[in-house]
Write a structure and sequence with these properties.
Enzyme class: isomerase
Shape: globular
Family: Belongs to the helicase family. PriA subfamily.
Largest sheet: 7 strands, parallel
Oligomer: single chain
Structural class: alpha/beta
Distance between the termini: 55 Å
CATH topology of the largest domain: Rossmann fold
Number of domains: 4
Number of helices: 20
Catalytic activity: ATP + H2O = ADP + phosphate + H(+); Couples ATP hydrolysis with the unwinding of duplex DNA by translocating in the 3'-5' direction
GO molecular function, one term: 3'-5' DNA helicase activity
EC number: 5.6.2.4
Strand order of the largest sheet: 8-9-7-10-11-6-12
Helix content: 25-40%
DNA sequence: AGCACGCCGACT
DNA sequence: GTCGGCGTGCTC
């Protein structure tokens, strides 16, 4: 097998920003194969690397450059950790996301990158494993999904309409065909419930990749998957890389969830990886949500994804009543309506949840008479008020304008910035309802270990009257004793300097109302807002779902935002303000240069646009100044090449870092 | 990313 | 005289 005469050499990549492969001599007797990990000396350091290739001859370039390879130190894995198709996927990722292969491979092995994840384990209602009989609609959906060995589907239906059952049945059929399944769930939320039902149905032929596994447990599960012992894999984002042989189905549950996008390099989107894998490996892709991303909805409308609609709410539970409350003229942050309903709920012996959006973005400028809000004339995103500079600033393009003294819509002088933080609301609730048990659940209060579980179980037992929570309460938690859900200020999301703000506001209200009526027949959602007529709020509150998407897609089309364009964001970060800006400007100049070049050489690639450099909405994080540039264009190739050419060979000064985000989900 | 080399300013 | 800033370049 092995040539007895000659030696062997390995092409190795490292998880470092080195876009190069390094050659090492394989010591006699080491059974090194492509796809194994090894330890090797690079410079003065000993690092772990990934073997991509094995040669039986010393590569010519090394002979020419007179380089004598060092010996590999040790072999970490006996058998390859990566299949050739995974290495190929890593190659594709590295070009797609401007990362290097070593970094991509590092992101693919679970635990290779520690992902922080709060798992609200065990908080969902226990899954009842009875004979589940599918409704006619569900049956039809499964049949359509399984009618062909491949294809893209979207199971679209409200909370409680039985999406999970469709997924599970499709998974069963796929396994019966002898093919493997990957079931992706968002980082927070229903992990536990789905994991339980998968385990109970597929037993030892399933693998659950959750954050609590130790590195060696993860590796063990990975090996079981490679060997084909585990045929159904459940996990968050990185589970999309599971080395399932003969992959037949990828499920992306709660497709709209932002946690599918990686927050660090390589900044991949699990949905995008899933699409690529499904098409490369001839598998089906099934996504699902009650509130699809606008991108996915548009693909459905275009017929590129087949829609599987689930219209009926199964297993009882009525639609909750959704009432919009105008905050105009209201003193403080709780309207009389909300106060009345809180009391009413307490009198009935039921519980309430009050939703607060993230603080920090409470500084939007609006008219208290008519609800008019300041927007950038060029980007159509909310302007952020900067008190220190006495200006309203667009965080997309850098546009700025002095704050208005009167409302341009109605002339009222009652204009100003508004918003309230978590502490403020808590204070007011405590003041209004002395003697009630009120608890707050947000990232601050969760830092103490165990307090999250504790608060949740106390709430479940009915020991808490009002739970004040942020996003984390919005998803995946269902409490039988809840009658009232109050969204304290639905506008907050609307004023985020982000083109997805309407989508997120709509999604939040819709998701929340899906929760409220689940157990209580008189479930009630109160949506407090300064803009009762704002489209996403009005449409979500009256369940005019398709109206929202139609309108939002039209707006995106007019403004040339995704899905009608692709976007790449370049973020320059430095402790030094001047350096951050000068590096950003330098990149912008190169971008402009390459934009012109591309325009002249390949006009068929269409127009591209460069927005910025502008201060990022979070202008300073951790003492780092943040400046970003947004590049958009209808043809992805054009945008991608332009950025590639513009960062090629650019060396930024000490302490300046560049982060590139392809198809960013958040622009903060 | 690290870690070396190397070149100019202010300290025991 | 040295310590230490940080720009530059390299890692098989």
């Amino acid at each position: 097998m092995e040539p007895a005469d000659g030696g062997r050499w390995a092409g190795v990549v490292f998880n470092l920003p080195l876009d190069q492969m390094y050659t090492y001599r394989i010591p006699e007797g080491l059974p090194v194969l492509p796809g194994v990990r090894v330890r090797a000396e690079l410079g003065r350091r000993t690092l772990m690397g990934f073997v991509l290739e094995v040669y039986t001859e010393l590569p010519r370039e090394l002979v020419e450059k007179d380089i004598t390879p060092k010996d590999l130190l040790t072999q970490v894995d006996e058998l390859p950790l990566f299949t050739p198709s995974q290495v190929e996927l890593a190659r594709w990722m590295s070009t797609m996301y401007y990362s290097n292969i070593g970094e991509c491979l590092g992101a693919m092995i679970p635990g290779g990158k520690q992902e922080r994840a709060v798992v609200l384990g065990g908080e969902e209602e226990a899954y009842q494993e009875k004979d589940v009989r599918l409704s006619e609609e569900q049956e039809l959906g499964v049949r359509s999904i399984c009618s062909s060995p491949r294809g893209m589907y979207y199971v679209y239906g409200m909370t409680g309409s039985g999406k999970t059952e469709v997924f599970l049945t499709a998974a069963r059929k796929t396994v019966d065909e002898g093919r493997g399944v990957i079931y992706l769930v968002p980082e927070i939320s229903l992990t536990r419930q789905v994991a339980d039902s998968i385990r109970s149905r597929f037993g030892s032929s399933s693998a659950i990749l959750h954050s609590r596994l130790t590195p060696s447990q993860r590796l063990g599960e990975w090996r079981r998957i490679v060997r084909g012992e585990a045929r159904v894999v459940v996990g968050a984002r990185s589970a999309v890389f599971a080395p399932v042989p003969d992959l037949g189905l990828i499920i992306v549950d709660e497709e709209h969830e932002g946690s599918y996008k990686s927050g660090s390099s390589p900044r991949y989107h699990a949905r995008q990886i899933a699409m690529r894998r499904a098409s490369a490996e001839g598998a089906r892709l099934v996504m699902g949500s009650a509130t699809p991303s606008v991108e996915a909805y548009h693909l459905m409308e275009e017929g590129k994804i087949s829609r599987v609609s689930l219209s009926r709410r199964l297993a009882g539970g009525d639609e909750p009543e959704i009432r919009v409350v105008n905050l105009k003229g209201v003193e403080g942050c709780l309207s009389p309506d909300l106060i009345t309903e809180l009391k009413q709920t307490k009198d009935l012996g039921k519980q309430s949840i009050l939703f607060l959006n993230r603080r920090g973005f409470s500084h939007f400028f609006h008219c208290r008479s008519c609800g008019y809000e300041a927007k950038c004339p060029r980007c159509s995103v909310g302007l952020t008020y900067h008190k220190s500079r006495n200006a309203m600033v667009c965080h997309y393009c850098g546009y700025r304008t002095p704050p208005m003294a009167s409302c341009p819509e109605c002339g009222s002088l009652d204009v100003g910035y508004a918003g309230f933080g978590t502490e403020h609301v808590e204070e007011e609730v405590r003041r209004l309802f002395p003697g009630w048990v009120i608890e707050r659940l947000d990232t601050d209060s969760v830092k103490k270990k165990g307090s999250l579980e504790q608060i949740i179980s106390r709430f479940r037992r009915g020991e808490i009257d009002v739970l004040l929570g942020t996003q984390m309460v919005a998803k995946g938690l269902n409490f039988p004793g809840v009658r009232l859900v109050g969204i304290v200020l639905a506008d907050t999301g609307l004023h985020m300097p982000d083109f997805r703000s309407a989508e997120r506001t709509f999604g939040l209200i819709t998701q929340v109302s899906g929760r409220a009526g689940r157990y209580t027949p008189d479930g009630l959602v109160l949506v407090q807002t300064y803009n009762p007529s704002s489209s996403p709020i009005a449409q979500a509150s009256t369940s005019r779902i398709s109206d929202f998407y139609t309108q939002e897609i039209q707006t995106r089309r007019e403004l040339g935002f995704p899905p009608f364009s692709r976007m790449i964001r370049l973020l320059v970060r430095s402790k030094n303000h001047h350096r951050a800006w000068s590096s950003a400007r330098q990149i912008a100049v190169r971008l402009e240069h390459n934009r012109r070049n591309l325009q002249n050489q390949q006009p068929s690639l269409g127009e591209t646009e460069i927005l910025g450099p502008a201060e990022a909405p979070l202008g300073m994080v951790n003492g780092n100044f943040r400046v970003h540039i947004l590049v958009t264009g209808a043809v992805f190739q054009a945008v991608h090449r332009m950025v590639g050419a513009s960062i090629q060979g650019v060396v930024h000064p000490r302490g300046v870092y560049l982060e590139i985000d392809v198809d960013p989900v958040s622009l903060l």
